[in-house]
Design goal:
By secondary structure, this protein is of the alpha/beta class. About 40% of the residues lie in helices and about 20% in strands. It contains five helices and six strands; from the N terminus they run βαβαβαβαβαβ. It starts with 9 loop residues before the first strand and ends with a strand.
Length: about 150
């Protein structure tokens, strides 16, 4: 399932799990080989990257909840309270399936919530659904939130 438009997207993945980063990268290459993927491995590294690269902000940010030094919830709050960063579409990416957590994240500004699947094919499908939704930046015009599960 290759994404139809061939626009080069700048995608940022914040995830401390090396295996998850590898599978994400492989899935993305399958879907949109022209995408530019940057990975950071904890919340402090994410916020440092965003503050030091204001001219290269991502088109879509995939943000893991459970990371060391600064978790995804703290990062989401900082991003959505920063005038220069608040319009970045944020896809929360976690194994957590708690409705309370999802609700809290949506109230905090997350646009999409993906429960990390155990199966690679499901991962490809979920990323394939999330990228077009997030990259269209429809969130600037509406308050729709999406939960994607395999």
């Amino acid at each position: 399932m290759e994404l139809k438009h061939q626009v080069t997207l700048n995608i940022l993945l914040a995830d401390d799990d090396a295996d998850d980063c590898f599978f994400f990268k492989t899935a993305l290459e399958k879907l949109q080989p022209s995408a530019q993927l940057t990975t950071v491995h904890d919340g402090e590294e994410l916020m440092k990257f965003l503050s030091q690269n204001p001219e290269q902000l991502p088109d879509v940010l995939f943000l893991d909840i459970n990371m060391p030094r600064k978790n995804g919830i703290e990062c989401l709050s900082e991003i959505k309270h920063n005038a220069k960063l608040k319009n970045i579409p944020v896809v929360m990416f976690s194994t957590n399936k708690s409705q309370d957590t999802m609700s809290k994240l949506f109230k905090g500004g997350a646009n999409i919530y993906i429960t990390k699947p155990a199966d690679f094919t499901e991962l490809v499908q979920l990323i394939g659904h999330a990228i077009p939704i997030a990259s269209e930046q429809i969130f600037l015009k509406s308050k729709l939130n999406y939960i994607l599960n395999a």
